[in-house]
Amino acid sequence: MSRTTSIILTLLCFRPVSVNAADSWPSFQNGGRVSQTADRPLRLGDISWDVELRGYGQSSPVVWDEHIYVTTVEGANKDNYHITAFALGDGSRLWQQSVANPSPQENNNYVSRSAPSPVTDESGVVCFFEGGIVVAFDHEGNERWKRDLVADYGSVAARHGLSSSLEQDTDSVFVWVERSEEPYVLRLKKADGETMWKAIGVGATSWASPRLIPVEDGIQLVLSAIGSLAGLDVETGRQLWKFEDISGNSTPTPMPLGDGRFLIGATIGRGQSGGGKAAESNGVLQIQRSADGQWLVDYAWQAKRATSSFGSPIVHNNTAFFVNREGVLYGLNAKSGKEQFARRLKSSSWATPVGCGTQMFFFGKDGKVDSLSEMTASGTLTTWDELPKLPPTPVAEGGRPSFFSGPVLYAAVWCGDSLLLRRGDHLFNVELESVNE
Description:
The longest helix has 11 residues, at 3-13. The chain is globular, with a radius of gyration of 20 Å. It is built from three helices and 33 strands. It is mainly β. The protein has one domain: YVTN repeat-like/Quinoprotein amine dehydrogenase (Methylamine Dehydrogenase, Chain H), CATH 2.130.10.10. Strands 1-27-28-29-30 form a five-stranded mixed β-sheet, with no helix packed on it. It is 5% helix and 43% strand.
């Protein structure tokens, strides 16, 4: 087989699942495609419906056609996981299935709680729960297959739990178990859950998710764990490269920009201010081959001051956006990295921003949504503050409030004329309307 034929077959086999965002949002961060077009300026309108969720969860909803899928966990020891299907039109519950957690752990603010996001396509939905269960259902709620990774590969214990979402291509799902000992990555067949390959993980703390990144002659699976990045061959799981000139990259997920380039975010420690070497880990990296055929990775540019929080940075309309822990928004030229502006938002963001046409939406931890019109320092910044408030989480006697306590807005998904906002306990559908209405 010629090298050209091999490249063509690789591209055919590893096509990312991609559909019109107006119809579906099939995976975490839509596979990195969070910058969307719109035929008119938009703003957030009314909450058309909201539903209370059974249990609690930190995952992003995913959408296929008229089905919304949300995962949660319930019980004092995270005893049961739930996957619930809702109708996009009115939020009515279509079905709910539950699976027992094979790795019970105290349910508290310091460990992940149904954090991995599922993936969906025309066949149904595949869910990964941090207790070690991977399970697939069709769109009617019938179980297709289930894998118990604890039974197959041992304990999944990790500091603060696992939160890596699933990644997918047309035929398979990628599962990253960056556990405390012997971390690993799996590629499973969507049709039956069979293992296609098992590879060694990164060996560092991470709450980021794997991401398929297009390169010059194929696609690589990129993993981000604190202090290192790694690229895997999607066909074999073989590690192609490792990059270690980075720090603080424990949470944001790589965002593909095309031609082997991807945007990476990194956080800084609590109580620290932005700038310096912390900012240098935020920027754009380039994957390319050397003259002798080896894969090389290095920064195309690095930020001067911009750092990230829990949400990933994104590029929209040729501007790279970073939101730091204090809620300061930085806008950088996506090609050069030159800082264009810095603006303060109402609060820091845990959810990844979404770009729609001439608008950017930033989702504060407390439920406030900031909208920026035009990608410049003079762009109008407005705040939408309509989510119902909840009382603060009680603190045990002698204890102290947790950074992770209280209601949190974890994710936002754009579907046609609305945004789905996912709080730990609720799902809200917020209408998008024209600015001049």
